[in-house]
Amino acid sequence: MENQKMKKRKQFTLQKLDPVNDRVTTTPSPEHLDAIMRNLGSEARIHVDNEEIVLHADNLQTIQNLGRGAYGHVDLVRDRQSGKSFAVKRMTLASFEEGQRRTLMEVYVAAQSKDCPYTVNFYGAMSLEGELWMIMERMDMSLDKLRENIFGADENYKIPENIIGNITYQIIKGLSYLRDEVSVLHRDVKPSNILINKCGRVKVCDFGISGNIVKESLAFSNVGSKPYLAPEKISPRDGQVGFSSRADVWSLGITVLEFTTGKFPYRGWQNAFEALNDVVTKPSPTLPAGEYSDEFNDFINSTLKKDVNERPRYADLLKKPFIEKCQSVDISSFVQEFANE
């Protein structure tokens, strides 16, 4: 039995970033990942707002479902004892390896980035009845829901650039932290994986396919949500392998462009082939001509360079005038205006 466990562990690898080439490289599987799942039960001792709380599964009342995915769902819950609310991500401990990998990756990255103000706060976890429960901070909505609220009320509404700039700044800070401090690439940047609260905090979430611990056969696969996938991940050039944070920069550009205009920046596709073909062969999408500042146009155009080597890294994006001038903008009133549409 022990030999079988060891063989299974060897199927997983830890991806580290090569700081020179900004690519993921492979090293042996870390044993400490096993500790993530060890000793979990139906209660969790967590710290929230400098207060220690012991959560018991039986005391968590489900208020509403917040979303579903291939490997689980997220519920808004209320702890009957403390009165506090949390988002609980319930993930099935799937018997097939990809489900296990995603589950482990989600917990690993969330735990490693818990001190980052730009990623969703991870408080702790429980394991019961074949499920892993991740206890996260409650956020009010995703970026795509905010966009729907805005343009659903007025399809001609123009979001102020400083609002867009601050939201973008916070997203970049979250992605940059994951890369620099946790040594992972997100690889699935899209509006539904960006969460916002009414205080104006913007946070990155959903780390299930992040580029850190992956099965060997997936180390160079084109994962991610297809419409937001960078051209080089769809059609790699000769000799081009591995992941780069600049693939996430492309996805960021598409995400910001969609949020700005209220529409996905490519034509309606009939099938996956059309979608991928357009990303690779068509000119990069741009902001509507004459409607936005030169600084904003420069930012979008730089993130959507077809040549990955011409695309900026996070440190470069943070120095862009469009981003620098929006770092301190308070977006809370704006979010509150559209939060309950």
UniProtKB/TrEMBL annotation:
Keyword Ion transport: no
Catalytic activity, EC: 2.7.12.2
Coiled-coil stretches: none
Gene3D superfamilies in UniProt: Phosphorylase Kinase, domain 1, Transferase(Phosphotransferase) domain 1
Organism domain of life: Eukaryota
A GO molecular-function descriptor: MAP kinase kinase activity
Residue ranges constituting the Protein kinase domain according to the UniProt record: 60-323
UniProt record, GO biological process: stress-activated MAPK cascade
Record key words, sorted: ATP-binding, Kinase, Nucleotide-binding, Serine/threonine-protein kinase, Transferase
Family membership noted in the UniProt record: Belongs to the protein kinase superfamily. STE Ser/Thr protein kinase family. MAP kinase kinase subfamily.
Protein name (Swiss-Prot/TrEMBL): mitogen-activated protein kinase kinase
Record organism: Dimorphilus gyrociliatus
